[in-house]
Amino acid sequence: MTTLETQVKQQVKEYLDIKHIFWFYNLQGLGAFKGIPDMCMFFRGKALFLEIKTPKGKLSYHQKIFQEQCFLNSIEYHVITSLEDLMAIVG
Question: What does the alpha-carbon distance between residue 26 and residue 49 come to, in Å, rounded to a whole number?
Fold first, then answer.
């Protein structure tokens, strides 16, 4: 993980806390679903998945599959590259 990606994750975390939006990190590990996004948040009665990337970052093969599964099941999935991306979603 790059320093810029770490900074964006920290900004996202702090902003969600300020807005009192419930969220949690999804940690990869033994038995974790491949491609699971970095974060899940609950906003206006819906669960949304957030994948944090640098502006030049690309989704992995498994992340693209996860994103497609979200699309097929009408679940919001967002790639966040800056605090502004998140602000566009939650205001």
Answer: 10
Cα dihedral value 45, 50, 55, 61, nearest 10: -140
Number of H helices, E strands in the chain: 3, 4
User: Over the stretch 5-48, which tens digit does the pLDDT of each residue have?
Assistant: 899 999 999 999 999 999 999 887 777 888 999 999 999 999 99
Phi, psi of 87 (to 5 degrees): -60, -30
Topology (CATH) of 3-90: Trna Endonuclease; Chain: A, domain 1 (3.40.1350)
Extents of the domains making up the chain: 3-90
Judged against a pLDDT cut of 70, whether residue 1 lies above it is answered with no
